[in-house]
Write a structure and sequence with these properties.
By secondary structure, this protein is mainly alpha-helical. The protein has eleven helices and six strands. It has one domain: Orthogonal Bundle (ABC transporter involved in vitamin B12 uptake, BtuC). The longest helix has 32 residues. It is globular and about 60 Å long. The chain starts with 7 loop residues before the first strand and ends in a 15-residue tail after the last helix.
């Protein structure tokens, strides 16, 4: 790729193709007599794509880890809340013509409320029957939401106009403003989550995750903590869907796509480790970004291979530890 060539970056996120990115005049560095060329512009584009997807993975995986750690519930419906957040924003912004901030707020409130209803309507009644019964209930609920969405509002793609159009250009390197905004939004949400976990409620969640019996002896109300945890975990997914929809179209399959990658993030980071999930999210995002550029649709296979090698040498993931199956 020469310095005057137009470089097209192909990228995929969550099973959906990202729009091609063009950056003429990318910085090239030649080294040695073999003429090895390093396209700095392309590398930065791939890193930005990886950070963007990693930020979204971090929100969904953090919500999943929160629910699993505190409630010992393996929530297979996690991806559906992400899809609902994307379509809620689409309905508010494109359908009603309101502003994007209102769409973001609507996605958050809708998924928070649905998370509470999900807990009191289903999870509360299955917890006493054990881990696997509850897991099957989340699978059934996720399928129900997916089919209901497909028959109603998710028959077509939901397209939201980019919040920021155009790109920053520096010495021939072009960085998409919309993707940078997604990264910034994900960082802000993760910062809010960090301080929330430092609050009294967040501390109670962490105590319940560490040892539910001891937390109860300390006066922590597990019933209240459980529904707050479910609401927070589902709300994180809703915000993630809302953040990504101006960059990618909302589809009825996006929930399963993000769920598969989030599970890989949890395995890589370590089950129950919020810090591990955060680190693993960006690792997975960058690996997927570079892998898709060079091996296309086999990028997910590259993530599986990385996960398998890591788990072989570190069964507990990057920052976690091997845990028994909840409920046993």
């Amino acid at each position: 790729m020469g310095g005057s060539e137009e470089v097209e970056t192909k990228q995929q996120w969550g099973g959906l193709p990202l729009p091609a990115i063009h950056h003429p005049g990318a910085l090239n560095v030649s080294r040695g007599e073999e003429g090895v060329i390093i396209d700095i512009g392309l590398i930065l584009q791939l890193v930005v794509n990886g950070l963007m997807t990693g930020g979204i993975y971090a929100l969904v995986a953090s919500g999943f880890n929160l629910i699993l750690g505190v409630m010992q519930v393996f929530n297979f419906a996690q991806g559906q809340f992400y899809m609902l957040g994307a379509y809620a924003t689409f309905g508010i912004v494109t359908g009603l013509g309101l502003s994007y901030p209102l769409g973001l707020l609507a996605a958050l409130l809708a998924t928070l409320l649905l998370g509470v209803l999900f807990h009191f309507g289903i999870i509360k009644w299955t917890l006493s029957h054990g881990f696997f019964h509850t897991m099957l209930a989340t699978i059934a609920f996720g399928n129900l939401v997916s089919q209901a969405a497909l028959l109603t509002f998710a028959r077509d793609q939901g397209v939201v106009a980019p919040l920021l159009s155009g790109a920053f250009s520096l010495r021939g390197i072009t960085l998409n403003k919309g993707k940078l905004l997604v990264i910034a939004g994900a960082v802000v949400v993760m910062a809010v989550l960090y301080y929330f976990m430092k609050s009294k409620t967040g501390t109670a969640m962490l105590a319940s995750a560490e040892n539910r019996d001891v937390a109860g002896l300390q006066g922590i109300n597990a019933k209240r903590i459980f529904w707050v945890t479910m609401a927070a975990g589902c709300g994180l997914c809703g915000i993630a869907g809302s953040l990504i929809v101006p960059v990618l179209s909302a589809t009825n399959t996006m929930g399963m796509d993000i769920f598969v990658r989030s599970m890989l993030v949890v395995l890589i980071g370590g089950t129950g480790s919020m810090a591990g999930a955060l680190l693993a999210s960006f690792v997975v995002g960058i690996i997927e970004s570079f892998a898709f550029q060079y091996v296309g649709q086999l990028s997910l296979l590259a993530i599986f291979a990385f996960t398998a090698v890591l788990i072989y040498f570190r069964p507990g993931g990057l920052l976690g530890k091997p845990l028994p199956i909840p409920g046993e």
